[in-house]
Amino acid sequence: MSRPSDPSNAARLRSTWARFPELSRRAYYTPIKHQHFVQFYSDFDTVLETIAWVAAEALQHGGSVIMMPLAAHLGAIERSVSGNGLDIGELRESGRYAAIDAASMLTRIMKGISLDAAKFRESVGAAITAARDRSINGDVVVFEEMLEGQSALGYQHDANALEALWNGIGAGEQFTLFCAYRMRNLASNDELDNLLEICAQHSLVVPAES
Question: Which residues partner with 37 through β-bridges?
């Protein structure tokens, strides 16, 4: 079981985030330049702003977007994307926008209590292929927070396993992947010791808000 957090965690986090330079949003996403980036957060509103910008950029340039958020976040995400002058209903009908509940997708890719690589390739791969088929420019952007609805127990181990699966499918598929993790699920000493393992699985890291 993870040990509770202590006051030294704030200093350790500052030291961790100092490894990653501040980036403009343009570094997060450029059409057809595929990235796998992660944003850590305490307040989801900070992630929401980034999601809306990335999704709008992709859709306005002819790409497709797949959202795999928590059900509680979907409404705010779609309102924010629509606020950029996009018609979510029209895009959904065209097949260039799809929303898949994170908890539902997580259930599909599990075998017992473990993530299953074959189920992941089947479910996630099918969603990406469908999105690419409808994309005007061949670009696909995915946002996911599949682990956010589960218990924090074992969260960091599951996060590394899930990111490895994403990188595995990314070796044969070209797409931009945007992951998001709440810091409260990485707040214990044990998990902070391994935070860089999650960071290392991404091409870009956006530190949590200070």
Answer: 178, 204
- The Cα 200–Cα 79 span in angstroms is 32
Q: In this model, does residue 157 exceed pLDDT 70?
A: no
- Give, in order, the Cα–Cα distances in Å from 149 to each of 146, 153, 181: 7, 12, 11
Residue 52 and residue 121: Cα distance in Å, rounded? 27
Residue 17 has pLDDT above 80, yes or no: no
Task: Look at 115-129, 167-181, 182-196 and tell me which has the smallest mean pLDDT.
Answer: 182-196
Q: Distance (Å, rounded) from C-alpha 144 to C-alpha 70?
A: 9
pLDDT bucket at 89, cuts 50 / 70 / 90: very high
Instruction: Kindly report the number of other CB atoms within 10 A of residue 150's CB atom.
Output: 14
Q: Crossing angle for the helix pair 117-134 and 155-170, nearest 10 degrees?
A: 50
144 three-state secondary structure: strand
Taking phi over 0 as left and psi of -120 to 50 as alpha, with beta for the rest, 163 belongs to alpha
Backbone φ, ψ for residue 209 (5° rounding): -65, 145
**4 part of a folded domain:** no
The model carries a pTM of: 0.83
In terms of residue numbers, what domain contains 48?
Answer: 35-206
Domain count, the chain: 1
CATH number for the domain including 85?
3.40.50.300
pLDDT-derived band at 153 (thresholds 50, 70, 90) equals very low
CA dist 178 and 58 (Å) reads 12
